[in-house]
Write a structure and sequence with these properties.
Layout (H helix, E strand, L loop, with lengths): L1 E4 L4 H10 L5 E3 L1 H4 L12 H16 L3 E10 L20 H12 L6 E11 L5 E12 L15 E3 L12 H7 L1 H15 L1
Parallel strand pairs: 1-2, 1-3
Antiparallel strand pairs: 3-4, 4-5, 5-6
The structure holds inosinic acid.
The site of inosinic acid has 15 residues, from strand 3.
């Protein structure tokens, strides 16, 4: 079986394929020739993942999946949430987003936060399935580490409370990350089918 991934990230596609039951393959949007823009304007991760998966399913009528992730900070009522990539504006860099986040949490006592991923999977009958993965942790008050991307330098997971995601190896991050947990939930479900 082939699953279309609503992304052009070949690296992500191979990583997911690696975790799937034998015989299942992932195709990227580039591989299937999809190049229309998809507007992700929902106010939840679930909503955005579904928008992407539905756009692909309506074009191809084949199994497809899409993910949406972000950082939720408790003292900011869940912000930046679905705006994580563009917290400090459209096309913002990771550094700009991190700077804005540090300003927003200055002086706050509760620095607890989580990364969350939702994967929407649409099967060949058109039935929609959602899978979620979270990693809980705490923000730091200054960036540390050089691995990873996004808010990694500001986030210490509960599993490694003294290290930021950007100070962990990719292998250690992948063991506990929101993305890998959501993916495990999907692949466990697919394997049980
Ligand atoms: P996406 O939906 O996976 O593209 O994630 C949206 C945004 O959330 C990214 O651009 C990052 O700002 C943030 N984000 C998601 N996952 C991570 C992560 O593992 N580390 C750091 N930032 C992340």
């Amino acid at each position: 079986m082939k699953i279309i991934l609503a992304s052009n990230n070949a690296h992500k596609a191979r990583e997911i394929e690696h975790m799937l039951p034998t015989g299942m393959k992932i195709e990227t949007l580039r591989e299937v020739g999809y190049n229309k823009p998809i507007i992700e304007d929902a106010d939840t991760f679930e909503g955005n993942a579904l928008i992407k998966a539905r756009a692909i399913f309506s074009e191809y009528g084949r199994p497809c999946m899409a993910d949406d992730s972000g950082l939720e900070v408790n003292c900011l009522n869940g912000a930046p949430g679905v705006f994580s990539a563009r917290y400090s504006g459209e096309g913002a860099t990771d550094e700009e987003n991190n700077k804005k986040l540090l300003e927003a949490i200055r002086g706050k006592e509760d620095l607890s936060a989580r990364f969350r991923t939702v994967i929407a999977y649409i099967d060949k009958s058109g039935a929609e399935h959602l899978f979620e993965g979270c990693v809980e942790g705490c923000l730091t008050t200054s960036p540390r580490g050089s691995e990873g991307f996004g808010y990694d330098p500001l986030f210490c997971p509960l599993e490694f409370p003294n290290l930021t995601f950007a100070e962990l190896s990719l292998e250690d991050k992948n063991k506990i990350s929101h993305r890998s947990r959501a993916l495990h939930a999907l692949t466990a479900w697919l394997s049980s089918k």
